[in-house]
Amino acid sequence: MRGAVLGATVVGGVRGAAVALVLAGLGHTLWNGLVEPGTALAFSALIACGELARRDTRDACDTGGAPGARDAREVREVRGGRDGDGGGAPRATAPEDRRPAPLASAGALAYALLGPDAAAPTHHGVLQIVTVVFAAALAGIVPHIARGRAPAADHLARRVLTVAFAAACFQPLYHSGRLERGIGQGPYLVLYLLLLLGLTALCDAVLAAALAGARTGWPYVPLLRDELRDQLGIGSAICATGVVMALGVAVAGLWALPVFCVPLLLTQLSFHRIAAIRTTYRQTITSLARATEIAGYTRPGHSRRVAALSCAVGRELGLSERELTVLEYAALMHDIGQLSLVDPVRAGATAGLPPAEARRIAELGGEVARQTGVPAEVAVIVERQADPYREQPALARIVRAVNAYEDLLGGSRHPGGPLAALEQLRLGTGRDYQPEVVECLARVLARG
Question: What's the Cα-to-Cα distance from 138 to each of 43, 109, 131, 135, 153, rounded to whole Å?
């Protein structure tokens, strides 16, 4: 309950600050009029086009809502012991999902850092920048709203706050002349802009991690670490393009905008293709994992629930995005070795088998996984999941504990439900299950 209240406070605070800035900007612009409307219109068109070309993450991978929403639903299913129908696989928030509109982000930063326009001074202020960026972004997402796939309100809130931060650090110094007197127009100005963009990227990462943590309840530090790592990828390209656009307009005028946005647009298209390939790959692994359910070896939805709960435990333990992806694939395929059995295991529950038999099934699963072309570490996790936890890779310990919990919860040995199943896992922490993983699993289930 306390976490939910804190999360609602964080989300409400971020959205409230963004709304206050937008209202102040709209009031200021309506009262004083639009300064240099041609420049404002050019940047508005660029931002709107960037939003129109944004990657719709739900089109690409059917997450069913905000990042983490599907994982939360799956964890609730496991907690309640329900058998799902084995729908889509859970997934972590991939880096390409965090930057669905890089062209719009770069255009907004360029407008916030715009000094001269073809050597002529500009006079737009911070509040006008906020107004133009918000109005252009809103215009660009109208088609997505019409299709019923509007981005989350947090997307606009982050955009408004980060652009306002960058503009507030640059525009007052530029308009007062202190920036030119103190730094000039040489390499020191570029260094100042790069430093400012670094702080802006840090601000955006802090906001993104706080909002994601408030929505999902996941630990803040791993989320912030993943956001900062993302800033080194497409985030650095966005910042660099924003600086180049601002400096290009200062020398060549507004004609520099279409010239300098082409590289980022091509990069965005490449990210779209990579994301589509990854989505197809994930769907292929999910379909392969369901083969045991279709053949009647495991209960419906078993691999999906194990993968979802394993990812939630991995989040709690602070795994990186790449580790979560490997963990997800291994959890989906953890029972694939049962396809080699002549006589199916009762209810597909391998947790109660003799150690030698469980190890044999796991080794068969590792061989099958290698033939599918998954990363080698996924196959290692699958084949080592039945070993004593001290001999296992760290990710295999998670899969083993979560699979045992799901097997115990779905069987008839623990009519008492989750608490009895967790107690059984705690009794096996001397050899079979890592105590830290079991306690982390208990925290995830308690949080629901």
Answer: 14, 16, 11, 5, 11
Distances in whole angstroms, Cα of residue 330 to Cα of each of 25, 73, 312: 50, 20, 14
Q: At what angle do helices 256-289 and 236-252 cross, to 10 degrees?
A: 160
Residue 285's closest CA among 404, 382, 394, 383? 382
- Position 126 scores a pLDDT of 94
Tokens of 99: 């930057």
> What residues pair up with 120 in beta bridges, in sequence order?
117
Chain CA centroid to CA 426, Å: 32
Q: Residue 385 has what pLDDT?
A: 85
| CA gap 392, 334 in Å, rounded | 14
Phi and psi, residue 423, nearest 5°: -65, -35
Cβ neighbours of 321 (radius 10 Å): 18
Three-state SS sequence of 22-67: HHHHHHHHHHHCCCCHHHHHHHHHHHHHHHHCCCCHHHHHCCCCCC
What residues contact residue 161 under an 8 Å CB cut-off, 6+ apart? 14, 17, 18, 21, 203, 207
First-to-last alpha carbon distance for the chain, in angstroms, is 11
Q: How far apart are CA 183 and CA 436, in angstroms?
A: 53
Residue 120 backbone phi and psi in degrees, to 5: -95, 135
**Global pTM?**
0.74
The three-class DSSP label of residue 117 is strand
**25-36: pLDDT as tens digits:** 999 999 999 999
Joined tokens for residue 206: 């802090």
- The two three-digit tokens of residue 42, written as one number: 């050019």
CA distances from 438 to 36, 266, 399 (A): 61, 46, 11
